[in-house]
Amino acid sequence: MLDIAPAATAPEITVRPSTEADVPEMLAIYTHHVQHGLGEFDLEPLHPDDIKRRRKNMLKRRLPHLVAERGGAVVGYAYAVPFRKRPAYRYVVKNSIYVHHEVLHAGVGRKLLAALIDACAAVGFRQMIAYIEAGNEPSISLHESFGFDRVGVLKSVGYKFGRWTDSVMLQRPLGEGDTTAPRLGEGSSEMPEL
Length: 194
Hints:
26% of the residues lie in helices and 30% in strands. The protein is of the alpha+beta class. The chain has a single domain (13-173), classed as Gcn5-related N-acetyltransferase (GNAT) (Aminopeptidase). The radius of gyration is 16 Å and the shape is globular. It starts with 12 loop residues before the first strand and ends in a 21-residue tail after the last strand.
């Protein structure tokens, strides 16, 4: 069980790059969302080797993979992947954020999203996309508070727990966005194998 003390007395949330040692805690967080949430369309939990492989592929291609810690425990993680594999999309990333179910609404997602935006902008990505299950208003509101705009709704794209679910697509510029052409070396020069 995590330390779920009130925010005023809880240990500070810190964000850092993930390590392979974080995989079991990341897997536990992800598994809970697969088994109980509509937002993750996987029907079966991942295997630890799947997360290890994905993490290594992201890092090899300068894509951030971060964890949030509180009191020495991993309480969330976030990463960015290419929005699409074709070369013209190489300056656009899609984000994913997972927060431990015992510390939802404690500021973990806010810390992770801020760090992820900064890390992606720092290496030259120009746009960030988020797909969020339409019923997940806290996540939609979080993204909107960071300047994401709703740019579309994908109707009935997921079927889980006996019901159809929509995905809301949000987007925000990173760095100079589309106001200038990318410079040599910005963004990801290779598309990862996911």
